[in-house]
Design brief:
- The chain has 140 residues and is mostly helical.
- Helix content is 54%, strand content 6%.
- A two-stranded antiparallel ribbon has the order 1-2.
- Strand 1 and strand 2 form a beta hairpin.
- Helix 2 crosses helix 3.
- The longest helix has 31 residues.
Length: 140
């Protein structure tokens, strides 16, 4: 299990970061012994944005599950791109793409925005290509 310790200024451990799946499994096991009631749960601040109601496509979820890859890798696979192609389009190195596709990766906001723009451009291109044959048939 990959574990990251977060320490204070004196080097004393303060927090432990673990993969979500492992945390989830631990919570399931603890639920058998947990007598805490939902009413006692702590409210966690949440900032909503314009993308909250946009669902993740099933095809992306299927790839993530089947291939056991990150969200970023699943989108790349869905679009049929190689890591080097993504690197070239984003202006970053192949190893940087490999790092951001790691399961435990948490890309910076700027990188996520670049990836979203790339996905948007790929979707627009796909839409234009699928519309082109229909327009050609109408001309004939």
């Amino acid at each position: 299990m990959a574990v990251q310790l977060i320490k204070d200024d004196e080097g004393n451990p303060q927090y432990v970061v673990i993969p979500y799946n492992e945390y989830f499994q631990m919570r399931l096991k603890m639920a058998e012994y947990d007598d805490e009631k939902e009413e006692e749960w702590e409210d966690v601040p949440y900032e909503s944005d314009e993308y909250d109601d946009i669902p993740l496509p099933d095809s992306v979820c299927d790839i993530m599950h089947r291939e056991k890859v990150s969200l970023q890798a699943a989108w790349r696979i869905l679009r049929g791109l190689a890591q080097q192609e993504v690197a070239n389009k984003l202006g970053i190195s192949h190893s940087a793409v490999s790092q951001l596709e790691a399961i435990d990766s948490r890309p910076q906001k700027r990188t996520r925005e670049k990836l979203a723009l790339l996905e948007q451009r790929m979707a627009e291109l796909e839409s234009k290509l699928s519309a082109a044959p229909a327009a050609k048939q109408e001309d004939e």
